[in-house]
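Q: What would this chain look like folded?
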Amino acid sequence: MTTGVTTPPIRVLLVEDNPGDARLILEMLREKENGATFQLERRDRLDAAMSHLQEHGIDVVLLDLGLPDSQGLQTFQHMQQHARNEPIVIISGFDDEGLALEAVRAGAQDYLVKGRIESELLSRVVRYAIERKRAEQQLRASETRLVAILEAALDAHITIDQTGHVLTWNRQAEAMFGWSLQDAHGKRLADLIVPPQYRNAHIAGLSRFVTTGEGPALNQRLELSALRRDGLEFAVELAIAPIRVGTAWLFSAFLRDITARNAADAALRASETHHRTVLEHIADAVFVTDAEGRYLDVNPRACELTGYSREELLHMSSPDTYPLDARAEARARLTEIAVTTGSSPRSFERQLVRKDGSIVTVEVNARPLPDGRLLATSRDVTERKQLEQQLRQAQKMEAIGRLAGGVAHDFNNVLTAIFGYVDLLREELPAGGSAHQDLGEVRKAAERAAGLTRQLLAFSRQQVLKPVVLELNELVEDFEKMLRRVIGEDIEMRLALGKDAGNVRTDPGQLQQVLMNLVVNARDAMPTGGTLILETANADLTEQYAELHQPVVPGPYVMLAVSDSGMGMTPETKARIFEPFFTTKEKGKGTGLGLSTVYGIVKQSRGYVWVYSESGRGTTFKIYLPRVDAPADKLLPTREPGSVVGTETILLAEDDAILRPLAKGLLAKLGYTVLDAADAAEALETARQYGQPIHLLVADVVMPGASGRELARQLEKSRPETKVLYVSGYTDDAIVHHGMLEPGLNFLQKPFTPAVLARKVREVLDAPPK
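A: My prediction, written as structure tokens:
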């Protein structure tokens, strides 16, 4: 058994003063049609009907226009004011078509003429009236919601008809354009908000759409200018859509003021331009990558650093620029950077492989960006690393030089004593005896040791040079025959001497030693023969060159280059070649002091030496000596004294307890009167107490307390006629170049033999006074 749903009765209010008509209508409604049930109420006056409406709810009103208290259409109008939500059907005894039409237009749901009403018709009219009223109410509610939505919209909303006149205009449109709805309604939109220069195009476009259906500006977002009521033009974003209503068109437009957005966009573009400009001109290479290291953006400096174009880099990743054996490390480093927190970037150095295959060292600072990308700046520090290496090498050489100089100083004192006592003993022994021969071997060993100390002093720049102005080309040409005998016939030696090569100030004997050592090394590097080139040329070393070759001082120089086609050197060997006792030769084939001597002599001559070599591609040594604007000096032969004996008085100041009695004995044996002292203070006191002339002061340069040079100055005050001979196994750069031993002073380098001391003393005593 099926149970139907009970339909609630339709509540009807009949307003009719004629009892017969009322009874007839009520009888018609009491009949059921399609299961409809009616609940009927009747009132015979308008006031009573309106009171009932206020107290009771109904579904439909059946209204007679002719009532005792109201007549005609006015009756409907009064009822309509009270029954705003209830449908009203007019039942009239007048068959007046005009009145019926006027009533329907005023809001009546239908107009029925008495005498023509049937039960079915009346029932159907009542139900349809209710349905139409509900539909109207729903439509009005929908329209109300739509209006509310449009009124609350953040954008201006405007509706125009196909002639371009305003139909709707929301509050945002009022605020945006300055026109109220009352001011705008019915006006042509073109006259309100379209700038004058665009009005004709707007009107023509609207007409073209209505005529042809073509509208390029429809159904899309456009940016254009709009006009405020005060005449101000501003930027808006417009979206307009056509709506077909019957045979006519409406146009719904949403407009948004984008002045602030455009300003923000302009500021953003300016900011991006600024940052792009900074990025384009920053000195460091800048890379932006994703978490996997794929390049997303690079600046021009990054292209210069890597050798790749921007397009090439954007198809690469960071590991692609690492050496092959370091790419796993690169990926691990990317992971570490990606999880880095805080503001401090990760800093590290790495090797970067350029497009041409060359490798440079770069210093990298990298950090993650808030959006997950990685930012890295890279700087080529290859030159800086080279300079640091040069500085470390220079510091190491300086430290070794101080050590070597100190050892040579002490050793020279010992060797001087050995020479002295060996020579004294040999004079007392028979020339053919075995003891005399044994002492000769001791003397040879001492000479070899003296040669080593001379090389150590040369390396440590603590030997006394006798510099003169000379033509470098002339020195090389004079020495050529000697060098050819050294290299042998299987090596071709060529001279490439610059015709305008300038003069230099240096010790010619020491520079010949430099040439000899370099040529011998070149010969040894070409065991199966090759080519040796000696080259001279003027060279102006610039500040840029000096920056890359510390500690070079920019200026004019003369270059002397020795190049060979030999086996060359590895970078590891090249880094150590100037260190004392470092050698690549077999044991017993070299002392490792040849290039150390070259280094010391060149540096003491205020020059620089650089080596260029690759394994298997030969070696070039370039020596740069300061160029001088002075003519070459004429070298005079040394004059040997006729006799070494004498009767003059000599003041000997020597702090070494072994050498002092030896030197005193040697000089006394030659007939001199010798006054000895252990230091400057004792020597001055001895001279003060000695009442006779003192012809010669023999003073060690370096002594405890005052130096030999200070002793000579003090002695000169009381004995200006006393000549001075300085001796030392050690003279540092300050002594040679800064006034303690001025050019022209007499000096004897330790170690020396008794014969050398005797000749030098006689030479100084016999020299004319200055």
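The first strand starts at residue 10 and ends at 15.
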